[in-house]
UniProtKB/TrEMBL annotation:
<dbReference type="GO" id="GO:0006002">
    <property type="term" value="P:fructose 6-phosphate metabolic process"/>
</dbReference>
<feature type="binding site" description="in other chain">
    <location>
        <begin position="662"/>
        <end position="665"/>
    </location>
    <ligand>
        <name>beta-D-fructose 2,6-bisphosphate</name>
    </ligand>
</feature>
<comment type="subunit">
    <text>Homo- and heterotetramers.</text>
</comment>
<keyword id="KW-0597">Phosphoprotein</keyword>
<feature type="binding site" description="in other chain">
    <location>
        <begin position="164"/>
        <end position="166"/>
    </location>
    <ligand>
        <name>substrate</name>
    </ligand>
</feature>
<comment type="function">
    <text>Catalyzes the phosphorylation of D-fructose 6-phosphate to fructose 1,6-bisphosphate by ATP, the first committing step of glycolysis.</text>
</comment>
<dbReference type="GO" id="GO:0070095">
    <property type="term" value="F:fructose-6-phosphate binding"/>
</dbReference>
<dbReference type="GO" id="GO:0005524">
    <property type="term" value="F:ATP binding"/>
</dbReference>
<keyword id="KW-0460">Magnesium</keyword>
<dbReference type="InterPro" id="IPR035966">
    <property type="entry name" value="PKF_sf"/>
</dbReference>
<feature type="binding site" description="in other chain">
    <location>
        <begin position="574"/>
        <end position="576"/>
    </location>
    <ligand>
        <name>beta-D-fructose 2,6-bisphosphate</name>
    </ligand>
</feature>
<dbReference type="GO" id="GO:0005945">
    <property type="term" value="C:6-phosphofructokinase complex"/>
</dbReference>
<comment type="similarity">
    <text>Belongs to the phosphofructokinase type A (PFKA) family. ATP-dependent PFK group I subfamily. Eukaryotic two domain clade 'E' sub-subfamily.</text>
</comment>
<feature type="binding site">
    <location>
        <begin position="118"/>
        <end position="121"/>
    </location>
    <ligand>
        <name>ATP</name>
    </ligand>
</feature>
<keyword id="KW-0007">Acetylation</keyword>
<dbReference type="GO" id="GO:0030388">
    <property type="term" value="P:fructose 1,6-bisphosphate metabolic process"/>
</dbReference>
<feature type="binding site" description="in other chain">
    <location>
        <position position="630"/>
    </location>
    <ligand>
        <name>beta-D-fructose 2,6-bisphosphate</name>
    </ligand>
</feature>
């Protein structure tokens, strides 16, 4: 779809007043959304107001509604909760309350509202909008406003952003706060696992989610829990027996711990609650296992927002301001949300109705319908969990007589082990024998290959790095030896988990098919690299973990810079020639600039950045943060930029530099990477099974077409298999990056939020979609 770019410069907010409020339960990332609304609003010359304490502040007026400046939202990006406060408000539920709120807004000329909250808060906002003209007329009759004001402020525009850690809002893949809540849960589970293993204990963990099991389900997937209870999918009759059998089987297999996750709203098929205490008592009585309960409670709402939530909230905040500027009296109230990797606008009430439909289906016992209404992403999570957590008895497994080899190639990336685990378990469920290759193609050539079983990969999801071992070596110089190994072990399919080397490796293997029949088998690549530089996929496993490492480090550095005042830090990130980590890290950490290879810069730009920072030091925000991708320019090195800034900033600010290095490859994988790795790898293995059936002729597998060597990638809203041969034209092989990269569109966002004048192509936004049409698996943006 070729369209003329549409730039927001044509949208002016002059003469408009926008107010932002947070309402309902707090969620990490709300502050990032508030910051983006304020800065984008000021950027387009609108007046922007805070409404403190949610709807209560709107009703009370006075000091609760204040105009804000650019600096008002400095240093809030990394703070959890909401700095403008949130409150449950009874008076806004009455017409008198709303009348008072309307009066307070009109007095300040505010007719644009940005509401960040859950479905209750957004429904309230919509009712307020529908009553608006009636409220103004009533105010005029009472003499509180004049007739002129009724005409001038005739309609109210409303845009919502969903801030809720439960991810319980239909129409949006991920609500603001969900990813951060998963971070908190996974941190706790990882910590509990070490103590549970020491004592052979069973732990029952209760997580939030009164009406929605998303947090419970995804954290169960991400830590490989033995059992999970969620409101949308109650266990079958007699679950007590099945659960106890499963737990005792695991113990018999020498598994030293059991983890059971319970959503606080979990129910059985008769709609009776299943509590964590009830589960604990059952395990103790039936099995006599040492069992403990941990209720996570408000820990899940706390802490600093994850990189994903900051970027999501910043994108949504900017999109919300654009939606308000473009709104007309006929535009329905909308929510801005994320579908896959794309910002979309949806009619608010359609989303609310669908969210209520889920609850209704659950109340009426239509549980399969409830799961379907939650969307394809939720359904996929559930199916993947069921596939990976319960091993069928050997007698029930199909026998395919196929052997599939799994290997890691390239540099280590967090989440690789989760991908290997999913591949092994799904492969076994499909009836294949799975072989693990140690140390990439080099290990393959040396015959470091062994059969791997279900139990061997237990507990792998939370492990960082690559347990199988990985090497950057390409297969070209070992072709004969690898072919020998494939023949000796009768390997019928290959699954390669890795980065750019894995992609090059598959190209080399498919080119060698003419000479070696052994390579005429289905091969699939799952992208895993911190650099996120693999063509054919918007995301790769490991990039989210690295981004969180960068963001955490930048937070600490900013804190140090704020303490010393007038200090600028220059931080070098990894990524090869791909600027993803530098650019997205800058957006998530609130940096002043990010130097990347994809956007060439010269000495004039460096000079302009120094001047920009000099101006900034005159304000109350006396610190600077600059990110530089390691290969952005061979002459403007980190040292060069550091020396230039030091010299040019003399007397105004001093400078420090920091090279983050290999810490970006380490650490426990983030919930996003565990889940993305698990789901994408499971899907890749299912593709292998399908291809094996298609290419099995006369007692052997023979696959020599382009579509039998594929890369599975996330593209905008879908997971797609793409022949590696077709991706060649999209690849810059010299710099090892895709020729086109989606995230470059977000670059102006970072600049706007750092107070640079820039152009921002908004062609992709602006179309109001309908909920039913959304291909709801945008399999992740969402995890």
């Amino acid at each position: 779809m070729d369209h003329q770019p549409k730039f927001f410069e044509n949208l002016s907010g002059a003469g408009k007043a926008i107010a932002v409020l947070t309402s309902g339960g707090d969620a990490q990332g709300m502050n990032a959304a508030v910051r983006a609304v304020v800065r984008m609003g000021i950027y387009v010359n609108a007046k922007v107001y805070f409404i403190y304490e949610g709807y209560q502040g709107m009703v009370d007026g006075g000091d609760n509604i204040v105009e804000v400046s650019w600096e008002s939202v400095s240093s809030i990006l990394q703070v959890g909760g909401t700095v403008i406060g949130s409150a449950r408000c009874k008076s806004f539920r009455t017409r008198e309350g709303r009348l008072q709120a309307a009066c307070n807004l009109v007095q300040r000329g505010i007719t644009n509202l940005c509401v960040i909250g859950g479905d209750g808060s957004l429904t309230g906002a919509n009712l307020f909008r529908e009553e608006w003209s009636g409220l103004l007329e009533e105010l005029a009759q009472k003499g509180k406003i004049d007739a002129e004001a009724v005409k001038k402020y005739a309609y109210l525009n409303i845009v919502g952003m969903v801030g809720s850690i439960d991810n319980d809002f239909c129409g949006t893949d991920m609500t603001i706060g969900t990813d951060s809540a998963l971070h908190r849960i996974i941190e706790v589970v990882d910590a509990i696992m070490t103590t549970a293993q020491s004592h052979q204990r069973t732990f029952v963990l209760e997580v939030m989610g009164r009406h929605c099991g998303y947090l419970a389900l995804v954290s169960a997937l991400a830590c490989g829990a033995d059992w999970v209870f969620i409101p949308e999918y109650p266990p079958e009759e007699g679950w007590e027996d099945s659960m106890c059998v499963k737990l005792s089987e695991n113990r018999a297999r020498k598994k030293r711990l059991n983890i059971i996750i319970v959503a606080e709203g979990a129910i059985d098929c008769h709609n009776k609650p299943i509590t964590s205490e009830k589960v604990k008592d059952l395990v103790v009585q039936r099995l006599g296992f040492d069992t403990r309960v941990t209720i996570l409670g408000h820990v899940q709402r706390g802490g600093t927002p994850s990189a994903f939530d900051r970027i999501l909230a910043s994108r949504m905040g900017v999109e919300a301001v654009l939606a308000l500027l473009e709104a007309t009296p006929d535009t329905p109230a909308c929510v801005v949300s994320l579908s896959g990797n794309q910002a979309v606008r949806l009619p608010l009430m359609e989303c609310v109705q669908m969210t209520q439909e889920v609850q209704k289906a659950m109340d009426e016992g239509r549980f399969l319908e409830a799961v379907r209404l939650r969307g394809r992403s939720f359904e996929n999570n559930l199916n993947t969990y069921k596939l990976l957590s319960h091993k069928k008895p050997d007698a029930e497994l199909p026998k395919s007589n196929f052997n599939v080899a799994v290997l890691n190639v390239g540099a280590p990336a967090a989440g690789m082990n989760a991908a290997v685990r999913a591949a092994v378990r799904v492969g076994m469920t499909e009836g294949h024998k799975i072989f693990a290759v140690i140390d990439g193609f080099e290990g393959f050539a040396r015959g470091k290959i062994k059969e791997i079983s279900w139990g061997d990969v237990g507990g792998w999801t939370g492990q960082g790095g690559s347990i199988l071992g990985t090497k950057r070596t390409l297969p070209a110089k070992y072709l004969e030896k690898i072919a020998d190994q494939m023949r000796t072990n009768n390997i019928n399919a290959l699954m390669v988990i890795g980065g750019f080397e894995a992609y090059l490796g598959l190209l080399e293997l498919s080119a060698a098919r003419e000479k070696y029949d052994e390579f005429c088998v289905p091969m699939v690549m799952v992208p895993a690299t911190v650099s996120n530089n693999v063509p054919g996929s918007d995301f790769s496993i490991g990039a989210d973990t690295a981004l969180n490492t960068i963001t955490d480090t930048c937070d600490r550095i900013k804190q140090s810079a704020s303490g010393t005042k007038r200090r600028v830090f220059i931080i070098e990130t990894m990524g090869g020639y791909c600027g993803y980590l530098a650019n997205m890290g800058a957006l998530a950490a609130g940096a002043d600039a990010a130097y990347i290879f994809e956007e060439q810069f010269d000495i004039r730009e460096l000079q302009a950045n120094v001047e920009h920072l000099t101006e900034k030091m005159k304000t109350s925000i006396q610190r600077g943060l600059v990110l530089r991708n390691e290969n952005c320019n061979e002459n403007y090195t980190t040292d060069f930029i550091y020396q230039l800034y030091s010299e040019e900033g003399k007397g105004v600010f001093d400078c420090r530099k920091n090279v983050l290095g290999h810490m970006q490859q380490g650490g426990a994988p983030s919930p996003f990477d565990r889940n993305f790795g698990t789901k994408i790898s499971a899907k890749a293995m299912q593709w292998i099974s399908k291809k094996l059936k298609e290419t099995y002729r006369k007692g052997k597998v023979f696959a020599n077409t382009d579509d039998s060597v594929c890369l599975l990638g996330m593209r905008r809203r879908n997971l797609v298999f793409q022949p590696v041969a077709e991706l060649k034209s999209e690849t810059d092989f010299v710099h090892r990056i895709p020729k086109e990269q989606w995230w470059l569109k977000l670059r102006p966002l970072m600049k706007i939020l750092a107070k640079y004048k820039t152009s921002y192509d908004v062609s992709d936004s602006g179309q109001l979609e309908h909920v039913a049409m959304l291909p709801k698996e945008a399999e992740t943006g969402a995890i």
